[in-house]
Fold this protein.
Amino acid sequence: MSGNKGITGRCLCGAVSITVAGDHDPRVGACHCRMCQRWTGGLFLCFTAEASAVTVTGEVARYRSSSFAERAFCPRCGSHLWFNDVEEGGEPRRYELMPGLFDAARGWPLRSEIYVDRAMASIQLAGDHRRKTRAEYEAENPFIPGDMEGGLPAT
Protein backbone atom coordinates (compact mmCIF):
# COMPACT_ATOMS: atom_id res chain seq x y z
CA MET A 1 0.00 0.00 0.00
CA SER A 2 1.49 3.35 -1.00
CA GLY A 3 0.23 6.90 -1.01
CA ASN A 4 1.46 9.26 -3.70
CA LYS A 5 -0.64 12.30 -2.88
CA GLY A 6 1.31 15.06 -1.16
CA ILE A 7 0.47 15.76 2.47
CA THR A 8 1.61 18.40 4.94
CA GLY A 9 1.69 18.28 8.71
CA ARG A 10 2.81 20.62 11.45
CA CYS A 11 3.79 20.66 15.09
CA LEU A 12 1.52 22.02 17.82
CA CYS A 13 2.81 25.61 17.59
CA GLY A 14 3.22 25.59 13.78
CA ALA A 15 6.94 26.43 13.85
CA VAL A 16 7.81 23.14 12.10
CA SER A 17 6.11 22.00 8.92
CA ILE A 18 6.68 18.64 7.24
CA THR A 19 5.65 17.93 3.66
CA VAL A 20 5.62 14.45 2.20
CA ALA A 21 5.53 14.95 -1.57
CA GLY A 22 5.86 11.37 -2.71
CA ASP A 23 5.73 7.76 -1.66
CA HIS A 24 4.60 7.04 1.87
CA ASP A 25 2.73 4.22 3.55
CA PRO A 26 -0.73 5.51 4.57
CA ARG A 27 -0.98 2.99 7.39
CA VAL A 28 0.18 3.39 10.97
CA GLY A 29 2.69 1.26 12.89
CA ALA A 30 2.81 1.03 16.68
CA CYS A 31 5.72 0.32 19.02
CA HIS A 32 5.53 -0.64 22.71
CA CYS A 33 9.28 -0.86 23.48
CA ARG A 34 10.42 0.76 26.72
CA MET A 35 12.31 3.56 24.94
CA CYS A 36 9.21 4.52 22.94
CA GLN A 37 7.09 4.37 26.08
CA ARG A 38 9.42 6.84 27.77
CA TRP A 39 9.54 9.12 24.74
CA THR A 40 5.80 9.28 24.12
CA GLY A 41 4.35 8.55 27.53
CA GLY A 42 2.89 5.24 26.41
CA LEU A 43 2.79 4.33 22.72
CA PHE A 44 4.77 5.36 19.65
CA LEU A 45 2.77 5.63 16.42
CA CYS A 46 4.29 6.32 13.00
CA PHE A 47 3.93 6.05 9.25
CA THR A 48 6.85 5.69 6.87
CA ALA A 49 8.01 7.88 4.01
CA GLU A 50 11.04 7.79 1.77
CA ALA A 51 13.65 10.34 2.85
CA SER A 52 13.69 11.85 -0.65
CA ALA A 53 9.95 12.59 -0.39
CA VAL A 54 10.18 14.56 2.88
CA THR A 55 10.80 18.31 3.23
CA VAL A 56 11.06 19.89 6.67
CA THR A 57 10.85 23.63 7.34
CA GLY A 58 11.53 25.25 10.67
CA GLU A 59 13.99 24.57 13.47
CA VAL A 60 14.19 20.93 14.57
CA ALA A 61 15.96 19.49 17.61
CA ARG A 62 17.43 16.03 17.20
CA TYR A 63 18.33 13.49 19.85
CA ARG A 64 20.54 10.53 18.92
CA SER A 65 18.74 7.89 21.01
CA SER A 66 20.98 5.00 19.92
CA SER A 67 23.94 4.25 17.69
CA PHE A 68 21.59 3.71 14.75
CA ALA A 69 18.67 6.10 15.29
CA GLU A 70 17.57 9.63 16.08
CA ARG A 71 14.37 11.18 17.39
CA ALA A 72 13.31 14.70 16.49
CA PHE A 73 11.07 17.28 18.10
CA CYS A 74 10.12 20.94 17.84
CA PRO A 75 12.35 22.90 20.26
CA ARG A 76 9.61 25.49 20.76
CA CYS A 77 6.53 23.39 21.66
CA GLY A 78 8.08 19.93 22.16
CA SER A 79 5.94 18.12 19.58
CA HIS A 80 7.49 14.82 18.54
CA LEU A 81 8.20 14.81 14.81
CA TRP A 82 9.92 11.56 13.81
CA PHE A 83 12.07 8.58 14.59
CA ASN A 84 14.70 7.67 11.98
CA ASP A 85 17.21 4.97 11.45
CA VAL A 86 20.21 6.94 10.20
CA GLU A 87 23.16 6.18 7.94
CA GLU A 88 26.76 6.49 9.12
CA GLY A 89 26.87 10.20 8.20
CA GLY A 90 23.63 10.96 10.03
CA GLU A 91 21.35 11.04 6.97
CA PRO A 92 17.95 9.35 7.40
CA ARG A 93 17.31 6.06 5.61
CA ARG A 94 13.59 6.82 5.72
CA TYR A 95 11.30 8.79 7.96
CA GLU A 96 8.97 7.31 10.57
CA LEU A 97 6.70 10.31 11.01
CA MET A 98 4.18 10.98 13.76
CA PRO A 99 0.73 10.63 12.14
CA GLY A 100 -0.91 13.09 14.57
CA LEU A 101 0.95 15.93 12.82
CA PHE A 102 -0.99 15.27 9.59
CA ASP A 103 -4.73 15.87 9.18
CA ALA A 104 -4.69 13.38 6.27
CA ALA A 105 -3.75 10.53 8.65
CA ARG A 106 -7.00 10.60 10.65
CA GLY A 107 -8.53 7.72 8.68
CA TRP A 108 -5.44 5.56 8.20
CA PRO A 109 -5.62 1.98 9.50
CA LEU A 110 -3.17 0.28 11.85
CA ARG A 111 -0.74 -1.87 9.81
CA SER A 112 1.47 -3.40 12.52
CA GLU A 113 2.40 -3.47 16.17
CA ILE A 114 5.77 -4.44 17.69
CA TYR A 115 6.92 -5.27 21.22
CA VAL A 116 3.35 -6.40 21.92
CA ASP A 117 4.54 -8.38 24.94
CA ARG A 118 5.87 -5.11 26.43
CA ALA A 119 2.65 -3.10 26.00
CA MET A 120 1.32 -1.20 28.99
CA ALA A 121 -1.83 -2.77 30.46
CA SER A 122 -3.76 0.41 29.63
CA ILE A 123 -2.82 0.25 25.94
CA GLN A 124 -4.20 -2.80 24.14
CA LEU A 125 -4.79 -2.28 20.41
CA ALA A 126 -7.64 -4.20 18.78
CA GLY A 127 -7.92 -5.21 15.16
CA ASP A 128 -6.51 -7.58 12.60
CA HIS A 129 -2.93 -6.42 11.98
CA ARG A 130 0.59 -7.89 12.16
CA ARG A 131 1.94 -8.24 15.69
CA LYS A 132 5.48 -9.08 16.82
CA THR A 133 6.85 -9.76 20.27
CA ARG A 134 10.14 -8.32 21.44
CA ALA A 135 12.00 -11.53 20.51
CA GLU A 136 10.39 -11.71 17.05
CA TYR A 137 11.19 -8.09 16.25
CA GLU A 138 14.76 -8.17 17.60
CA ALA A 139 15.56 -11.31 15.58
CA GLU A 140 15.24 -9.22 12.40
CA ASN A 141 16.04 -5.60 13.34
CA PRO A 142 18.58 -3.41 15.18
CA PHE A 143 17.65 -2.81 18.81
CA ILE A 144 18.92 -1.56 22.16
CA PRO A 145 20.09 -4.53 24.25
CA GLY A 146 17.87 -5.05 27.28
CA ASP A 147 15.18 -2.72 25.91
CA MET A 148 16.36 -0.16 28.49
CA GLU A 149 15.45 -2.30 31.50
CA GLY A 150 16.68 -0.54 34.60
CA GLY A 151 18.49 2.33 32.93
CA LEU A 152 19.37 4.41 29.94
CA PRO A 153 20.71 2.97 26.69
CA ALA A 154 24.37 3.01 25.84
CA THR A 155 24.98 5.32 22.89
